Amino acid sequence: MTDQPKGLFKTAISDPAVRLAALGGALVGAVLVLAVVLLVGGPEKAPAPPAAAQESQVAKIDAPPPQHVRQPVPTLPSRAEPVTGAAPLPAPVDPAPPPVAPAPAPAPAPAMESYPDLPVARVETTPPGAAPTVDQGPAKPEAPATPPPDMVGPPPADKPMIAIVIDDMGVDQRRSARAMKLPAKVTLSFLPYSRDLKAQAAEARKLGHEIMLHVAMEPESPEADPGPNVLLTGVPEQELLTNLRWNLEQMDGYAGINNHMGSRFTRDLAGMRTVMAELKERGLFFLDSVTSRDSVGAKTAKEAGVAYATRDVFIDHKDDEAFVRKQLERLEAKARKHGSAIAIGHPRDITLRALKTWLPKVQAAGFELVGASRLLHRPAPSPAQFSGTSG
Ligand SMILES: [Zn+2]
Q1: pLDDT in tens, 175-217
Q2: Which of 38, 57, 133, 219 counts the most CB atoms within 10 A of its CB?
Q3: Contact partners, residue 160, CB within 8 Å, separation at least 6
Q4: Span from the CA of 25 to the centroid of ligand 1 (angstroms)
Q5: What distance in angstroms lies between residue 154's CA and the mean position of ligand 1's atoms?
Q6: Which of 204, 172, 213 is nearest to 186 (CA)?
């Protein structure tokens, strides 16, 4: 009663009851003000920088389906953005999966990275008995000490086999639907950030096609836009894995992936080793699109014991139907010569038109159309697998 409170209310208020009431009032007021601030200003302010940045990145890329060829310069989602690092990485469980952007007008045919017609890196299979010391280089000391398994090619068949893989599926839904209606079974490789990805992939499977996942990897050209969550060189392994897993988890029902673009990434030994370890873990195969003649896709797949194949012919990197038909002839020649061949094309008008007439013809000519998974080099079964299970 006699002691004056020390502190804020010392001077003005002497009655303890009044003091208490005043204190309470002030508290309630403060809470109210805080609530109002949160309601009005909060949502955009608090999580803003990362979310907005990511969102705009996705929206930018997503709005026009990836025109890999020439994008307006400032939108490049090239290395600069994800690498700037400090910001949170796109998590696999990203609350905002890619197709959030408001539906854009149906887009023109997605263009592709304009590749030169690169020679195929036909990879020698390890000669049996050769010294198995493969690349225990200083680069990756934790590389497994066990030698890579021998790989065996596809089993021989009566007819020369051809796999037609259509990349970039899913973004241009109209043309993707046309690709699904091609008059033969083909392999359809879907971009993970396509809208309605799962429904489209399910439809493709229902129609009897093999499906694959088309994972965006860093291109050499800064003008090429590979899309969101692209696999980049020079980032921490954990960041690379986060992006890779995001890609791999966008759909299921596929047995392998191939690279979308990637003329830079597929040359990167460390990055490709990380990818292969994850593919091995998940039992997925790798089809090297061979967008760089220096791709280490086959090499790293072999090292890791991942089943793999390499693309033989691109059929439509020139906008010319006669060119596509000529490439299809080259494909037949290669299949005849090697027993099998893999072509990659895209859901473009010229390609779809050419394939529609070519597919029945090539079968009549004695070729067998197969899914890409049929033409893999696989780790040879170990001797242990041969013994003991015949009964
Ligand atoms: Zn592609």
Answers
A1: 999 999 999 999 999 999 999 999 999 999 999 999 999 999 9
A2: 219
A3: 332, 335, 336, 339, 340, 341, 366, 367, 368
A4: 64
A5: 25
A6: 204
